[in-house]
Amino acid sequence: MLELAFIWGIIKLTRLSRCRLANRLVRAIESVNRKSCKTTYAMCGCLNASDKQHREAMMIRLQSGLFIILLLGLAGSPARAEEIWSLDGFKAPESVLFDAKRNVFYVSNIAGDPAGRDGVGYLSKVSPDGKLQAAEWVTGFNAPKGLVMQGDTLFVTDIDRLMAVDVESGQITGTWPAEGAQFLNDPAVDEAGRVFASDMLANRIYVLDNQALSVWLESEDLLHPNGLRVEDGRLLVAGWGRDIQPDFSSKTPGHLIAIDLNTKAISDIGSGEPVGNLDGLESDGAGNWLVTDWVAGALFRIHPDGKVEQLMDLNQGSADLEFLEDKKLAIIPMMMDGKLVAIRLD
To answer: Among residues 82, 84, 86, which one has the least CA distance to residue 340?
Structure first.
């Protein structure tokens, strides 16, 4: 009964709430101590004591529910996520990146067909507090997607080519065609300065090394790779899943995988259980990763053992996010909604 008294002090339910709890919680415990039941019943004080059988049945249900509450309490409180600001006016925003040196966000806008070579894509600039600084800061792209910085150079994936932008001048300074590429998505840079780029549809990862862009790895086990991140000698990959369907979902949802940068060996993060159609991938600064699910619309935290926490429900199209560790702020492009949302995580 000490556990029950402890729970009672924590939840501080009103008398009416306790009665509803007694009537609604799961019938999970079939054998209970009757004396404990009667004591618990007295604490509730909401049933007619003249009906012994009814009283005892309700006590079993009440104690079952309180036991469940205890288990939930021991599991800890869920992480909280709160929207801080949002900014509309984008055209299919796919990726956002923060430039700490210049205190600005860069945003890629597909604008047209995600696989269309139509020349309508562009990059925008946004202030840290969510104000638009330049709508069409850099133009001349087809369908720009992932972004990564190396020094003063911003690398941008654009369907079947990797492009470089000088952020000081806002000029495109380099273009590397990716032979055989179908849908370049997210780039990442390693300590040696190599730029990796995922090809989601071709199940490939390209690498720009010594000014030459070539296929670095091709495998079905890449799970139609989307978000990339270099960490501790590994290339982490947010997998979209196996067997992409006409509606862009996958027959089997994806999960996080890791690729050894030296051996190219592929391994699962955790058990390899399906998580979702994963898009953006960032560290949360505490040894875990934040990922978005584009199709379902969700923000997840994934732990090194593969444990998954859903932090927030979002609309479909939650794409390649940025995370500001010092502010605990996740910035997420909502591709289908044409906006950015800033979410504070506790």
So the answer is: 86
Strand ranges across the sheet with 339-345: 81-88, 339-345, 329-334, 322-324
pLDDT (tens digit, 9 = 90+) per residue, 50-79?
445 545 554 545 454 444 443 444 344 456
User: What number is the average pLDDT over the span 230-246?
Assistant: 97
Closest CA to 47 of 22, 14, 29: 22
Residue 316, CA atoms < 13 Å, CB-side half-sphere: 6
81-345 in CATH: which number? 2.120.10.30
Report the C-alpha gap between 333 and 126 in whole angstroms: 12
Residue 129 corresponds to which tokens in the numbers above? 């507090």
The C-alpha atoms of residue 91 and residue 94 are separated, in whole angstroms, by 9
Q: Where exactly are the structural domains of the chain? A: 2-75, 81-345
User: What are 166's two structure tokens?
Assistant: 């000088």
**Percent of the chain predicted with pLDDT > 90:** 76
- The whole-number average pLDDT for the span 252-267 is 99
Cα atoms found within 13 Å of the Cα of residue 332, Cβ hemisphere only:
35
